[in-house]
Amino acid sequence: DLLDVQTLNSILHIEDSGITEENFHEMIPLDSFIGQSADGKMVPIIPGGNSIPLTFSNRKEYVERAIEYRLHEMDRQVAAVREGMSWIVPVPLLSLLTAKQLEQMVCGMPEISVEVLKKVVRYREVDEQHQLVQWFWHTLGEFSNEERVLFMRFVSGRSRLPANTADISQRFQIMKVDRPYDSLPTSQTCFFQLRLPPYSSQLVMAERLRYAINNCRSIDMDNYMLSRNVDNAEGSDTDY
Q: pTM of the entire structure?
């Protein structure tokens, strides 16, 4: 879009670049009233635009038409979204919200707050004073927001928290599990649960957690167990 705006500005103020009517078509790579749509395709910006020549004298009209096309290109889609939203929220009320506020209400907060997670956490087989828990919160606090988003997807299957803490319907769970030291952490997204094995240091925990959130191939252990059961069943059939 920025490139499109720059192109239109250059056409509108073309005389500033020393371009005249004589060399107009040598410098401007367009020869009719066509322009780039949102999906990157070249389309007529007005009905019959393919057959309307773009010239030095009508360049200002071209720019006006191109801007109008881009501004109204999504009118049908916007109208459909507006109609759908009106079934849930009275349209007049939407004017009371900014675009950012509406996004946060519908999609949640783009920033994953460690403090919010602490408010809704529940510990299992461990308490908040346990070294494992202290290491975890310190590690999560050192993560970038991008990493915390990956962490959220790892433990819950979603990438945002609701804007209102009261709307978090399920408490975040941290559970200590009996597995070998320095194993990879696992999760159960259906329960918003992180399962931590014992670690020899916070550094090792951070390394294992980063590996897990960046390389997890399935939402949770359910898919793994289903696949393993299928494999076992196939193996049993073969043995018989």
A: 0.62
